[in-house]
Each structure stands twice: as structure tokens, then as C-alpha cells.
Amino acid sequence: MEKAKRPPRGTRKRDVPLTEAGIYVAALRLIDADGVEALTMRKLATALDANPMSLYHHVPNKDAVLRGVARMVGTQFRTVTLEDAPWQERIRLLATDFRTLAHRHPKLMAYSFSHQADFIQPEDPFWAALTAILDAAGVPQSELPQITALVGAVITGVLTAELNGALHRWLSLASPTVGEDGPIHDENCMFRLTLDTIITGLEGRLATNGDGRGADH
Amino acid sequence: MEKAKRPPRGTRKRDVPLTEAGIYVAALRLIDADGVEALTMRKLATALDANPMSLYHHVPNKDAVLRGVARMVGTQFRTVTLEDAPWQERIRLLATDFRTLAHRHPKLMAYSFSHQADFIQPEDPFWAALTAILDAAGVPQSELPQITALVGAVITGVLTAELNGALHRWLSLASPTVGEDGPIHDENCMFRLTLDTIITGLEGRLATNGDGRGADH
DNA sequence: ACCTGAACACCGTTCAAGT
DNA sequence: ACCTGAACACCGTTCAAGT
């Protein structure tokens, strides 16, 4: 009879204690599947095979769950730093790596970009790398914060438009012949095109402001 | 006793029948004040001095209310078209006019940019004007949809970062001396800087692709 | 320390009933 | 045609009580 204290194998998903990290992992799985707006403390508890109220012993509220998940995903970001490559190529690589992460959890990232003003922080690897590259490119110290913010805003902006489908709509409605190689191909091109255009714009700015070349080391 | 059918003046706000347009106007007022996430069918009904269920006779559901409000605000967009000004100046004016509208209803616009992939449609005045300007600038027909989407994505992207506060955070955390003339000044500069950079980038692209000047007519 | 059931104050929406 | 009350199926969160 004491075996009855636990339901038979297969009905009980959780035989591991509730943890903050475990809650975030489960929440991310639900978000990836159904979107942020479908995430519910009650559903999350069900997914963890727990009582809804038990979650509140590990997490203060729902907003903290969303911030925790975003933070967990954010720390997964890694990029190789090609110190001796030209800054144009380094920006392209950084942005592409960031986009790869965004594609891994599109629903969460679309939400974070628009709802979490503090999702990308100046101390984050992405921001630090971006600042370092632009510094190496020869952007004057006085303009570095603004230029970094500009490039950051453009990258997250075009990514948001891609993740929420606006980019795809604009392309497919404007020219019905688009998308022959699939929407992913179009959006690869659009991302690349946007990067190239902003890079060209920066080159122009650097050329008028100085010698247009950063200190090589 | 028959006077009691209506509460005394001042307690009853609505003595005009419920309308679809009236619902949108009231919803916009609530959104401007408290944000989209605070809008509730029940609060909306209270603001209109109506029973919550009465709304459903004029509007199918809450999502339709949000789309209706966004559409109502979107049609307010107007810009002057300076046919004979250089395309750079025309883009700057168009983008600035659009930003002015966004500042009039920041909460709604931030929501629409990230949640309504169809908020800006290719038939809208904004999109049509943008396409016309880029066409006049000499962008080849084959690239016109992509370049328009690129400029549109960049403008809405930087606007989103401004409206949700991310831009301000990036600037103020990166350089503590920022904001001496107030955040609005900073964000004016950032918007202008982004526009100028993207325009310089387009100039570079046009220069390599052709004679770098559109047909004047 | 960790979990839980009941409860509270909300939601959006359906539906049958009123005028 | 337009409005309404009651009800349903949900929410996030508090709190007192259990182990």
C-alpha cells in the first residue's frame, strides 16, 4: 500500500525536486511550443507535475519567470572574436551569431526585444563585443555609445520584423514572385542586405571623421 | 419617479449610443493612459458606461478592438510629399512625420509594431511614399521591395527601441554624462543618426549599382 | 523548508432572456 | 436590433494550514 504514495511510472513526470532553473527550462519549452502569451503559471505547474502554488516558493511571480527565462537564454550567446579580421566582417559574424540564437527561440526573443528593455545590457557579451569592434573600427570614443546603440537597435529591429512575420509579409505582398527559394532564403538575404547597408553607412561616417581605419592594435 | 430611470447628470458619461468608432476612441484613450496590457473589455465598457457584454454587438472580440484602434490611428498618418527635393531629404521628412505619429500614441504603436505584423501594409500611405521615394532615388525595380522593407524595418526597429525604453537605457548606462539636455534630445539625435547612416549606406549601394542618381523625370 | 487547498479578485466570451 | 445578467472556463496571487 505504501507504493500508492506515488502514481505509477509514466503518469508522474517529475521525480526531481522543483528548482528555479528547472522552472525556467520548463517555461522555455512551453514558450517555444506555444508562445509567451500562452504561458501560464498553472500550465507551467502542470508541465512540472506540481501544484501551481509550489512555484511561488522558487520564483516571486510570473514576470520573474519571463525575465529568468530570457536571462537563461541570453547567457547562452557565444560568438567567436576574430581580432584580426576587418571590422566589417567581425560585425557580420557577431550579428549572424546573434540571429542564430534568436532563431533557436524565436517566440521568446521576439517577446524580449519588445517587452524587456533591459534584455540586452551593456555588460552582455553581445554588447561588449559590438562596442569593441566599433572601437577597433575607429569610431571616436565620444560617439561610441551612440553608434553602438544605433547598430544594436538596427540589428534587433530587423530581427524583430523577421521573427514576428512583418518582414515576410512586406516582401511577399510587394512582389508575388518572392519566396521561390523559401522565406528563409529571403530573410537571410534581407538580414545580410541590412547589415551591408548599415556597414556602408558607417564606413561613410568614418571616412569623413578621420582616416577611416581603426588602430590595428 | 420616471426621472429615476437615468442617474443624475455627471454620473452617466454616455448618453450617446454605442458605436464601433466610439469603442475604438475610448479604447485608445485607455491605452494612451495605461498601456495596451491594461486594456480590458470590462474596463472599456465601464469607460463607455455600458455593460461589458454590449460591446460584443459592435465588435467581435478584444483582438478586433486592438486591430481597430491601430487601424484608426494608422489612417491618421499624413506626410507632405516634396516631389522635387532630394530623396535623402524626402526620406528624412517621411520618417520624422511617422515618428511624430508614433509619439502621439507610444503605447499603442509599440504594441502594434511588435504584435501586428500587418500593421504597416504595402497599400498604406507610409509604405507607398517610401516606395515612391526609393524608386525616384534610382533603386532598381528588381530591388525595390527589398530596399523598401529594409528601410521600413530599420525605421520601425529604432522607433520600437525608443518607445520601449531600450534606446534610452543603452545610452544612459553606457555613458553617464548622457541626457544633459534630456532624453528626448538624445533620442532625436539617435533617430537622426540612424536615418543618416542608413541613407549613406543606400547612397553607397546606388553608386556602385548605377550612376547613383535617379531619373529626375 | 517546502508544499498545498481554498479563496479572492480578476479576465474574455457564450448564451438565453429581455426590450 | 440592441442590450443585459448569469454563467463558464480560465487567469495571477495571497494566505492559512499542513508535512
Structure report:
The structure is a homodimer. Chain A is an all-alpha fold and about 220 residues long. Chain A is built from 9 helices and no strands. In chain A, helix 6 packs across helix 7 and helix 7 runs antiparallel to helix 9. The longest helix of chain A is centred in the last third of the chain and has 27 residues. The N and C termini of chain A lie far apart (about 75 Å). The N terminus and C terminus of chain A are likely disordered. Chains A and B meet through helix 5, helix 7, helix 8 and helix 9 of A and helix 5, helix 7, helix 8 and helix 9 of B. Chain A binds a DNA duplex (19 and 19 nucleotides) through loops.
Secondary-structure topology with pairs:
The structure is a homodimer of 217-residue chains.
Chain A: H1 20-34, H2 41-47, H3 62-74, H4 87-104, H5 106-115, H6 125-136, H7 144-163, H8 166-174, H9 183-209
Helix pairs in contact in A: 1-3, 4-5, 4-6, 4-9, 5-7, 6-7, 7-9
Chain A binds a DNA duplex (19 and 19 nucleotides) through loops.
Protein name (chains A, B): TetR/AcrR family transcriptional regulator
